[in-house]
Structures are given as structure tokens and as C-alpha cells.
Amino acid sequence: MNKLDSSLVVSALTDRGYELTDKATEADIIVINTCSVREHAEERVFSNLGHMKGLKRKRPHVIVAVIGCMAQRLGEELLAHEAVDIVAGPTQLHEVPDLIEQTLGDHEKHLSVTAQIRQPAASDEIVEASGKLDDFEIAYDSDANHIKSQAFIRAMRGCNNFCTYCIVPYVRGPEVSRPPLAVVEQAKKLVDSGIRQITLLGQTVNSYQYTENGKTYGLADLLQQVSEIDGVGWVRFITSHPGKFDTSILQVMADNPKVCPYLHIPAQSGSDRMLKAMNRGYTAADYIALMDTAREIVPDIAIAGDFIVGFPGETDEDFSQTVELVRRVRYKNAFVFKYSPRPGTHSEKKLVDDIPQEVKQQRNVQLLEVISEIAEEDNKRFLGQTVEVLVEGLSKKPHLNQAENENNPQLIGRTAGDYIVVFNGPESLTGKFAKVKVTKTAALTLFAELA
Ligand code: SAH
Ligand code: SF4
Fold first, then answer.
1. Domain boundary among 78, 112, 146
2. What would the DSSP string read from start to end of 347-410?
3. Does ligand 1 come within 6 angstroms of the Cβ of 36?
4. Mean pLDDT of the chain
5. Do 431 and 341 have their domain in common?
6. End of a domain among 323, 358, 380?
7. Is residue 64 a part of any domain in this protein?
8. 40 and 144 both lie in a single domain
9. Same domain (yes/no): 342, 410
10. Is 342 close to ligand 2, i.e. is its CB under 6 Å away?
11. pLDDT > 70: what percent of the chain?
């Protein structure tokens, strides 16, 4: 979501004639997009702002804008920082070009955030904001090494789930879905400009819902509509919430070869006690049943997840239930996060962060080991198989076990199930689909040769 937001802000700025540089020391305007989901992400922003202070001493005309979730969360407090000139929340990203122009004119600090983001009026503000920013074509890929073959499109903003640990509903506001036509029109433009894969985004993208002329469109409808665009290769979506997950989404995956068989669907924990304390709205058994249904309807589905370890009160028994769930579901990959209390959330206010850092760390390592062990085992099934990949470009860190030469450098691609594949081939394949034969497998990577 933040990659998309960064791209959209850059598009809005280049549209006004600004030019992009990747060197902070050359920039006249520095925009820092931020995340509030864990404390560590915020700490990194403050350390960056420390550098900005030094930089502004040498080049006092430089304007520093802090945008995104931290801007919404801290507002005035961030604006008071010596290095900061502009603070704009996730709902105000479309205002960034104007805020910069104001600062250039009056040399004052400017703040723009939503006053009461959970009040009904905020929804109107978010709808309006979406109309002003989300349609911008993406001119810039924040992962600049890779040629643009894939693009993100926002399907919806915000979240109404209020998982007790999570800051997102308080900084991104209520759920608002975009009209299907807006998404489809944007996808068409991107496909016309050479994009082959579209990823639809939402904090809980399976809650996508838009009613128009008496008809309600869900995520399955949106996937179908985008997949029907001439020239589109693959369509995928992130992230899904396991509560109220409509099987029509699985059905469109099974029936439509353009809809990728990939589901990122965080469980967060395998303990019912923890799931309840997290307000996730399902039990471990519900989650497992849903994953079984997913595999029944889409046999080759790749399932990815997120877990939080060290949530308040998590015992060894709770943790072992998480390990058990991981062994049962067999993820393609899963991210593991150590619980981090976020100011203003239910769990920060009502629960004690009582799991020692060492225990969180040890559970984190142990869970990652189990996830990796399973992925390594499961990936062996690809050996000798020919798979289709969308080629992203040159591999950033060439793997030593694959010989490289100038005409046949090491490339990186991804399968429809989002498996990373490393193989040698001409760089001209970048942005195209290719068939490769898997010769070696590991937990996170498949190695292959052009078929
Ligand atoms: N909307 C998505 C992602 C939300 S944030 C979803 O619901 O799946 C991404 C991940 O960060 C979450 O899935 C969760 O695992 C983790 N996370 C969120 N808040 C956290 C916190 N306070 N401490 C640790 N991890 C957290
Ligand atoms: Fe946060 Fe839960 Fe919403 Fe995901 S579903 S963004 S974890 S509140």
C-alpha cells in the first residue's frame, strides 16, 4: 500500500513538472512516506529525520514533507520537528503538490490531516481524496530496479476490523471501495502502457463492495472485470481477511486462468484464546476449514500468511498451537512479527505487553524455521516442472550457484503463485512472460533454465 502511495504522490508531482532524483543530497524537496504499523518503522523515520536536519543545515532551502500513517498519527508533534516542513496524512496525499507550493511561497510549516478519522464525515473526505489521487497513472516504480511490468491499483481504502493490536483503522480511516469502473478504466490505461500484471490492493481487499444502480459488486466481480481487459496477463490481490471470506473469490481463481492462484490471508495466531484477544473474528478451526475449502476449489493455490508472536498473555501452549496451524496449513511463505504495542489501540490501552523481548525473539525464529522447513519440502514438487513466469528483470543479488555471462545474465521472475524464480536469459525478456524449467529448489527460491 505504501509503495502505491509513494508512486501516486510521485506521479502527482511529476505531473506538475517536478523531476525525480534518487539522491537526497541533490533534492530540493524530500518526501518521506511512513508506516505506523510497528514501532520500529516509526523509529527509522525519526532516525531519517535526524539526517535531514544535518542536510538542511547545508542546504537550507530544502523542503521536507512527511506523509502517510505517521503523519496522521502524530500530526503537530511531527510538524514541530526541526527538519519537517510539511505533514500530510494518507487521506491528504493528493494535497502534497499544493502544500509544497504553499511552503515555497510562504516558508511556513503546513499540516494537513483528518481531524476525526473514525467519524462518518471522514468517509466523504476519503471518497473525495480517492477520486483525486487514485486514478493517477503510475509513472514511477518505487522498486526502480525492475522495469514496470506490474502495477498496483487501489481497490479500497481503510479498514473497519479493529484488530486490537492494529493502528491501521485509526490512521487510514473507514473502509471505502472505489467504483469498479474507475478501477477497470485505470487498469486499461496501465495495460495499454505495457503493464502485464495488475495487483488490486486493500487492507482487507476481500471486503471490497460497491453498489451501483441496484447491483452490488464484490472482489470476485472486480477480478473478473479486470481479467477481461484486452492484453492483461495476470490479476492478483492483497491482502485478505479470513473472516467473511466469500468463496466466489476462490471460484473465479479456479475458473479464470488470468486470476492468480495466490492468497495472502494472515491467520495471526493458531490459538483461539489469542484470536479472541486480537478480535480477529474467527477460530483456528474456522481458518483451517477455509484453507481446506481453498485447496479443494483451487488445488494449486499458494497460501501466504502473517503471524504475530508475543501478543499479551501468549503462553507456550498458545504458541505451540500457532506452530501446529502452520504445519497444518503449509504456507508458501509467511511473515512473522513480534508484537509491538501501538498507541491508542485497544491492546495498548487495556493489555500489558508482558512477553519478554527474548521470548518474542525466540518464538519469531522458531516459527520462521518451521515455515521455511515446510516451504523447502513443498517446493521440491516443482523440480523438473516447466512453469510460466513474469520476468521482473535482472536479479539484484546474483546467486552464486548460477553461472552468469553478459549475454545471458541472471534474471528474476515470479510464477502466478508468486514463487520467485531465478534463471539465466536475455535481459530483453524483462516485462514479458517466459517458460522456465525448474532445476533446483530452496525454501524461498526456485532455480531454473529457459525452457
Ligand atoms: N490489512 C492487512 C495487513 C495489516 S498490517 C491484514 O489485515 O492482513 C500487516 C501485518 O502487520 C499484520 O498482518 C500483522 O501481522 C502485523 N501487525 C499489525 N499490527 C501489529 C502490531 N501492533 N505488532 C506486530 N505486528 C503487527
Ligand atoms: Fe489491521 Fe486487522 Fe484491519 Fe488488518 S484487518 S488492517 S490487521 S485492523
1. 112
2. HHHHS---S-HHHHHHHHHHHHHHHHHHHHHHHGGGTT-EEEEEEEEE-SS--TTS--BTTB-E
3. no
4. 94
5. no
6. 380
7. yes
8. no
9. no
10. no
11. 96
Amino acid at position 255, single letter: D
Q: What is the CATH number of the domain that holds 36?
A: 3.40.50.12160
Counted domains in the chain: 3
| 208/304 same-domain check | yes
| 118 domain residue, yes or no | no
Query: Of 280, 308, 331, which is best to mutate to test ligand 1, by the most ligand atoms within 8 angstroms of its C-beta?
Result: 308
Residue in the block written with cell 473497519: 160
Using the mean position of ligand 2's atoms as its centre, give its distance from the Cα of residue 266 in Å: 10
If you average pLDDT over residues 97-122, what whole number do you get? 95
Q: Say if residue 137's pLDDT is above 90.
A: no
| The pLDDT of residue 136 | 82
Query: Quick one: 264 and 390 in the same domain?
Result: no
74/89 Cα distance (integer angstroms) = 10
List the beta bridge partners of residue 238.
201
Above 60 in pLDDT, residue 416? Answer: yes
pLDDT at residue 142 tops 90: no
Q: With pLDDT > 90 as the criterion, what percentage of the chain qualifies?
A: 90
Q: Which set of grid coordinates corresponds to residue 149? A: 511490468
Among 34, 265, 337, which residue has the most ligand 1 atoms within 8 Å of its CB, making it the best to mutate?
337
Q: How many CA atoms lie within 13 A of 182 on its CB side?
A: 17
- The predicted-structure confidence for 286-343, as pLDDT tens digits, reads as follows 999 999 999 999 999 999 999 999 999 999 999 999 999 999 999 999 999 999 999 9
> In the structure grid, which three cell numbers stand for residue 252, read together?
473465479
Question: Does 308 contact ligand 1 (Cβ within 6 A)?
Answer: yes
- The reported pTM is 0.95
pLDDT interval class at 146 (50, 70, 90):
very low
- Containing domain of residue 101, as a range? 2-112
Place of cell 480477529: 280
Q: What is the pLDDT of residue 145?
A: 43
Mutate to test the pocket of ligand 2, among 157, 162, 168, 275 (most ligand atoms within 8 A of CB): 168
